[in-house]
Amino acid sequence: MNVEAERDRYQQQYNRLQAALVCQGLRPKTISAYSRGVRRVAGYFKRCPDSLTADELEGYFAALVEAHSWSILKLDRNGMQFYHRHLLQRPWDWVDIIKPPRPQRLSDVLTVEEAFKLGCRNLPSH
What is the pTM of this model? Predict the structure, then answer.
């Protein structure tokens, strides 16, 4: 494939992506993050991401999880999801390819029993 023609096609799609992100009313930081994600995918494969298969993207995200934080993974996934849905007008059927772990949250207030389990013996008595 002609590298220059591929680069031109990607640049046209990237410009359309930028316009679509703005038209959807997304915040500047979100636009920047989603755009960066699409650029990262295109750079990884060295081609326009419109022809990537689900298997290729699954491999990409598997490699990305080893080198980046879950927040970057989510932003890249969301950027590619936006790209597929709004620019390519294709369904994004494989959102669950990357599913970050859900953090375990501590409750804001401990019960007396929970406090005792943690070793808090000097609690005020009621």
Answer: 0.74
Residue 87, both tokens: 């620019």
Distance of alpha carbon 54 from alpha carbon 60, whole angstroms? 10
Instruction: Tell whether 59 is covered by a domain.
Output: yes
CA-wise closest residue to 87 among 21, 3, 9, 8: 21
Residue 41: per-residue pLDDT: 94
**What is the model's pLDDT at position 119?**
72
Distance between CA 65 and CA 10 in Å, rounded? 25
- The domain tally of the chain equals 1
CATH of the domain at 41: 1.10.150.130
Question: Could you tell me the residue range of the domain that residue 64 belongs to?
Answer: 3-94
